[in-house]
Design brief:
The structure holds 2 protein chains of 2 kinds. By secondary structure, chain A is mostly helical. Chain A has one domain: ABC transporter involved in vitamin B12 uptake, BtuC. Helix content of chain A is about 75%, strand content about 0%. Chain A has a two-stranded antiparallel sheet. In chain A, strand 1 and strand 2 form a beta hairpin. The termini of chain A are far apart. Chain B is mostly helical. Chain B folds into 2 domains: about 1-205, no CATH class; about 210-285, no CATH class. Chain B contains 12 helices and 2 strands. Chain B has helices spanning about 1-30, 35-55, 60-80, 85-105, 105-110, 125-150, 150-160, 165-170, 175-200, 210-220, 225-245, 255-270, and strands at about 115, 200. Chain B has a two-stranded antiparallel sheet. In chain B, helix 1 (about 1-30) packs parallel to helix 6 and helix 1 crosses helix 10. Classes of the chains: A mainly alpha, B mainly alpha. The interface of A and B includes residues 87, 91 and 264 of A.
Chain lengths: ~290, ~280
């Protein structure tokens, strides 16, 4: 029997790309708006449940279902910005207040999903879901391959937007120095809205991909964003490329860690690594400068 | 039977008062936003449950629940002492997920997701137990009032307002932060023990964010760094929950509906009045 390691690495890469997807939406908002955007998890679970609604309950075509799910997550993000985050920005809320509000939104969404869909776990229905490739040393499903490919495509698109477009430039300017950016005529509110929109698309796609790979349950958003956030801290809080590396790293470590510890302790592994990073290398893997709090 | 209902509600009110005041001590009076406060309540509850089920007298178990919680609190404060602002909150948030993982997986000790049933009562009569918990919590309020107005309490508040300046004045902020965390988590553990003996059952769901939201509601709506605020905030939560009890809602969604109503109130307070009713500082 061949070693189990290649399979663990493959599993780790798949889990890692899911975490990285969650992490980069979180990190993007943290980078531009400077607050811990936990309600990104709410968007991910909303998108997953919406694709369940459109695909399983309404029986729509999967492309249409996916697009509709992303549209709903866009609406949810814009609503949360208009109703919660923008009023808080206007009132100069502290980062801690905004962090608490985002946790409140996250739990609100899981309660709403619980009320609407019940507590039982759900699975997305797709005809070719169980197509599996066996390469001897490891097996991988078609869904998992498409997760890896789509994740790479999304990361590339995100990089393109951030580095090659006027919008990306404006976002980076706001992130670096809001006052100076305003002086040269960039409207922060507009850039904030665009940031939320991009994060919603990222969150929507990750929600659908996660829905294909795992079961849906009302509290899934909490579990996913915790991993995304740990990945983001490890990669360097406020760095989008760092969050992707951090998410992949966490996925790999957790899955290889199963060798040494029972599966139930996955959360403990990733959290301990985060703690080690916070103590010995708070700037993360990519070495982003720590935010000045004092 | 309405009588019994009020006795039970008041017992919980007194227990939550201890939890939220000790939470306020960390968040409001010292500025250490310990998002994992419920973890220490849960640890206290588990310690007390395991010890009394193992045949120990309740008063030893109560004391040990406080001490073990405090030991973990000191450990957390010592590890995080160099981290500031955001990073402290991050770690305390992560502690919740460690607690969930450990309580679910250390089956030989906690019976995992099944929980520990049959925790013995301290006092058989519900009324006298309410009175007992009431006395404990009044004593705690008095102690708390004395503490925050003492020199030590002033130093805590100075750390919240400007840690560097406090250190420059020659105060050992490292020691005070650990000391504060020890007090805060000690009482969280005591409250957890009292809660375990009241509901006679404990399982990992005590660590869920849904439980944390309840004490967050009491703290934020009441206001930070205010004893009066915490008392009113705690009372208000019970009023809201009991009012919702009489709304006609399908029983299978009453839980989520209650949760959502609390969250909406909390959100409105966070947006429009982040200091809550009687708060003296921002979150």
């Amino acid at each position: 029997m061949p070693s189990i390691l290649p399979q663990l690495v493959v599993n780790g890469l798949i889990a890692g790309s899911i975490y990285a997807l969650a992490a980069c939406g979180f990190a993007l908002v943290y980078y531009v708006l400077k607050f811990q955007y936990f309600s990104h998890g709410a968007i991910i679970s909303t998108a997953a449940y919406m694709s369940f609604l459109f695909l399983n309950l309404m029986g729509l075509n999967y492309v249409l279902a996916g697009i509709l799910a992303i549209i709903v997550s866009l609406i949810a993000v814009l609503l949360s910005n208009w109703l919660v985050y923008r009023p808080m920005r206007k009132r100069k809320a502290t980062p801690t207040t905004t962090l608490i509000a985002s946790i409140v939104l996250l739990i609100f969404t899981s309660s709403l999903l619980l009320a609407l869909f019940g507590s039982s776990t759900k699975t997305l229905a797709l005809s070719n879901k169980n197509v599996t490739f066996d390469w001897g040393i490891f097996t991988i499903t078609a869904i998992q391959i498409s997760i890896l490919i789509l994740t790479l495509v999304l990361f590339f698109l995100l990089w393109l937007v951030m580095k090659k477009t006027r919008l990306g430039k404006a976002m980076r300017a706001i992130a670096d120095n809001k006052d100076v950016a305003q002086i040269v005529g960039i409207n922060p509110e507009k850039i904030y809205s665009y940031t939320f929109i991009i994060s919603a698309v990222l969150g929507g796609v990750s929600g659908i991909l996660i829905g294909l790979e795992q079961n849906l349950y009302p509290r899934m958003g909490v579990m996913i964003i915790i991993k995304g956030f740990i990945g983001s801290v490890i990669g360097g809080l406020g760095s989008v490329p760092g969050s992707i590396i951090g998410g992949l790293f966490i996925g790999l470590i957790e899955n290889i860690g199963v060798w040494f510890l029972p599966t139930g302790y996955k959360d403990v592994i990733s959290f301990s690594i985060m703690l080690l990073f916070l103590i010995f290398r708070p700037q993360g893997i990519l070495g982003v400068k720590m935010r000045d709090d004092s | 039977m309405i009588h019994d209902f009020f006795i039970q509600e008041f017992t919980f009110f007194f227990i939550y008062l201890i939890i939220v005041l000790s939470f306020n001590l960390a968040v409001g009076f010292t500025g250490m936003v310990n998002l994992g406060h419920m973890v220490f309540v849960g640890v206290g509850a588990y310690v007390s449950a395991i010890l009394t089920l193992g045949g120990m007298q309740w008063y030893f178990a109560l004391l040990l629940a406080g001490l073990i919680s405090a030991a973990l609190g000191i450990l957390m404060a010592a590890v995080t002492s160099r981290l500031k602002g955001d990073y402290f909150q991050i770690v305390t948030l992560g502690v919740i997920f460690i607690a969930i993982a450990v309580s679910r997986n250390w089956v030989s000790l906690t019976r995992g997701a099944l929980g520990l049933p049959g925790i013995p009562d301290i006092i058989k009569s519900n009324f006298y137990y309410m009175a007992f918990v009431g006395i404990v919590s009044v004593l705690f309020v008095l102690l708390f009032h004395w503490l925050v107005n003492s020199e030590t309490g002033k130093i805590f508040q100075a750390i919240r307002d400007d840690e560097t300046a406090t250190a420059v004045l020659g105060k050992n902020t490292y020691f005070y932060k650990i000391f504060l965390m020890a007090i805060s988590t000690f009482f969280a553990g005591i409250a957890g023990s009292l809660m375990a003996h009241q509901i006679n059952f404990i399982d990992p769901s005590i660590f869920d964010l849904e439980q944390f939201i309840i004490i967050l509601f009491m703290l934020i709506v009441g206001g930070l760094a205010s004893i009066k605020g915490t008392i009113i905030g705690t009372l208000l939560l019970f009023v809201v929950i009991d009012a919702l009890r009489f709304l006609v809602v399908a029983p299978e969604i009453i839980g989520p509906v209650r949760q959502m109503s609390l969250l909406i109130i909390l959100l409105v307070v966070l947006i429009f009045r982040p200091r809550g009713l009687f708060g003296r500082v921002d979150v």
